Amino acid sequence: MEELALFGGRPVRSEKIYYGRQCIGEEDIQAVAQVLRGPYITCGPKVEEGERRLAEYIGARHAVLCSNGTAALHCACLAAGIGPGDEVITTPMTFAASANCAVYCGARPVFADIDPRTYNIDPESIRARITPRTKAVVAVDFTGQAVRVREIREICDEFGLVFIEDAAHAIGTSYNGARVGSLADMTTFSFHPVKTITCGEGGAITTNSDEYHQKLVLSHVHGITHDESLMEDAPHEGIWYYEQIALGFNYRMTDFQAALLVSQLEKLEAFKKRRQEIVDKYNAAFRDVPGIIVQEEIPESDTCRHLYIIRLDLDRLSCTRRQFFDAMSAENVQCQIHYVPVYWFPFYRHMGYRKGLCPVAEEVYKGILSIPLYPMLTDADTDDVIHAVKKIAAHYAR
């Protein structure tokens, strides 16, 4: 048996590799440089192009680009009319923004439990959490796998709820042949550097509803409009005139960010293909390793995976997750944890939330570990990751 690097053995790699990173090429740099040399670096035509290109790719009627994925979620909640006294059902297995967006609007997040095999929100747990105050569901496509869209859509329709899909992980994923972003009432995306495509930061909301689209546009530009058809005081004094007709926020995306996004969109299918190749290789390598549980996927989801998560079966290993994590780092394979259950944080604890709300999510959390996944990984890199996992699992096998 190989000696772990943690205890003085030879690491599987000489250089450290991380769980995720952006993939920026010369064509991306030139796209940004072209905008920086032009007359508009913000509030210009590249944002409009980005919205059009994203909507076309998704197959949605509308897309609105904004400053980040959190802003996208906030705008979606505003467009849905969520306010004080309302409840919004979401998952605890997510980044905090999926719940915070409800709090921004004065509403209360309600956490539904997850499926123990897919780690996505469980539709039956959603149903069990519905009260007369429930206004919306924010369903997160965790790791990039589509949620059970059909079941959640049926629940939302039955109870008159707004279906918001948090697809921060899932651009490029399809559900039953339709791309994520074209299915829910509103779908939000993130373009953070570790996501499948990036524009530094940045986010978007897609929708097929003209009504939601109008509200989304207003919410991310201060509630200000130049559209005479929306103004109360039209006809106005001149082309310079505008009105604030709602309370909105400054959540605009710049033109040079949009240029990077448009360039990255051109490579999305290639990125997806490479991510799927790596996922398939990991699945084959880990499926029969004692102490390692592989995340399952529903057949409806053609997934562009953002994260690859292994789950440690700690009953079959003689280590803690922290020990496994540290051992991976010593082998120069840096992992991450996605995510601490949201309601465990002090902010939510002070609001009255307590551990035990979602027992499946809490049990899954104890063993999950995100390993490297991004298109620039070589076959040799993925072999090293597999080697490290198997080496450590074998060392700690009971």
Shape: globular
The number of helical elements comes to 13
Query: Overall mean pLDDT score?
Result: 97
Q: How many angstroms separate the termini?
A: 14 Å
Sheet with the most strands, sense and barrel status: 7 strands, mixed
Tell me the quaternary state.
single chain
How many strands? 15
Structural class: alpha/beta
- Whole-angstrom Rg: 22 Å
If strands are numbered along the chain, what order do they take across the biggest sheet?
1-9-8-5-4-2-3
Low-pLDDT segments: none
Helix amount:
25-40%
Order of helix and strand elements from N to C terminus = HHEHEHEHEHEEEEEHEEHHEEEHHHEH
Query: What proportion strand?
Result: 5-15%
Model description:
The protein has 398 residues and is an alpha/beta fold. The chain is built from 13 helices and 15 strands. It has helices at 26-36, 45-58, 69-79, 97-104, 123-129, 149-159, 210-219, 255-265, 268-286, 321-330, 346-349, 359-365, 379-396; strands spanning 62-66, 87-90, 108-111, 134-140, 162-166, 174-175, 178-179, 186-190, 203-207, 224-225, 243-244, 292-294, 301-302, 308-312, 368-371. The strands form four sheets. The chain has a seven-stranded mixed sheet with strand order 1-9-8-5-4-2-3, sandwiched between helices. It has a three-stranded antiparallel sheet with strand order 7-6-13, with no helix packed on it. The chain has a three-stranded antiparallel sheet with strand order 12-14-15, with helices on one face. The longest helix is centred in the last third of the chain and has 19 residues, at 268-286. The two termini are 14 Å apart. 51% of the residues are buried.
